[in-house]
Each structure stands twice: as structure tokens, then as C-alpha cells.
């Protein structure tokens, strides 16, 4: 990655990461909100969605906040997630990442958010709230 630091925008909602069975239907409540991600594999159906929309008792990790890397990012860029992942790992902050065609979304537990933002700012990233 070049030396230019990126900016990240904090999404306003609180999110959850859910696990459903691989053959389950996608619940309609998932599709509400400014961000959701649905991934089906041969093993599971994983969903990231606005926590307040959660309507059933399913296996779920709650209280995530999302930092969106402002993009779009070119596919030729190298090391963006690696650098941020290392920064978080060095400070014992677990992350969950969702990548799209244009950019990456970094999920951080709400209890670690302020520490993560401070770490990013100290490394010259711009964080927009």
C-alpha cells in the first residue's frame, strides 16, 4: 500500500453477526437498514444486519459497530486490510471484515470502538463520525 492513509466512516447503527443453517430462508427483517451482508456457503448462512431489526432467536453475536473504508478502492491496492488488521491485533482488538466490490467494512465490538478509533487516528487514519 502506498503511504497515503485512508479515511473511514463510522456507520450509525449497531450490528449483529448471525449464523443460520445453510438451507434456511433469508429472513425479511435482514433487508432493512443502510448495511447488510448475506453469505451462504455449503456449511452455513451468515448474516450481518442492523441489530435492532433482529426478530427471532438465532445464533448471533451482538454489539458490533462498523467502520467503512471510504472508497471506492481499486483492486490493485495492496495491504489495506492487512495494515488495519495488524494495528488491531497488536492492541488485542478482534475484528470481523466484510468486503464488497468497492470497499471494506470493519466490524469492531462496541466496547472496543473508542480504543480502535484512537489507534487508527494515531496512525494517521481519518475517522469520520
Automatic annotation (TrEMBL):
Database matches in InterPro entries: A9CJY8-like_N, ACT-like_dom_sf, CASTOR_ACT_dom, CASTOR_mTORC1, UCP008459
Every CASTOR ACT domain range: 60-121
Ranges of residues in domain A9CJY8-like N-terminal: 13-55
SUPFAM superfamilies named among the record's database cross-references: ACT-like
Pfam families documented for this protein: A9CJY8-like_N, ACT_7
Top-level taxonomic group: Bacteria
Name listed for the protein in its UniProt record: Uncharacterized protein
Biological source species: Clostridium thermobutyricum
Amino acid at each position: 500500500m502506498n503511504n497515503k492513509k485512508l479515511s473511514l466512516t463510522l456507520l450509525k447503527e449497531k450490528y449483529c453477526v448471525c449464523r443460520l443453517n445453510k438451507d434456511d430462508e433469508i429472513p425479511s427483517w435482514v433487508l432493512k437498514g443502510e448495511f447488510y451482508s448475506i453469505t451462504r456457503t455449503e456449511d452455513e448462512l451468515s448474516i450481518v444486519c442492523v441489530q435492532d431489526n433482529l426478530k427471532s432467536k438465532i445464533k448471533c453475536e451482538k454489539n458490533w459497530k462498523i467502520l467503512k473504508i471510504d472508497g471506492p478502492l481499486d483492486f490493485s491496492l495492496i495491504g489495506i486490510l492487512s495494515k488495519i488488521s495488524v494495528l488491531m491485533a497488536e492492541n488485542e482488538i478482534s475484528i470481523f471484515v466484510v468486503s464488497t466490490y468497492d470497499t471494506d467494512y470493519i466490524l469492531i465490538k462496541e466496547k472496543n470502538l473508542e480504543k480502535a478509533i484512537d489507534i487508527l487516528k494515531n496512525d494517521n487514519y481519518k475517522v469520520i463520525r
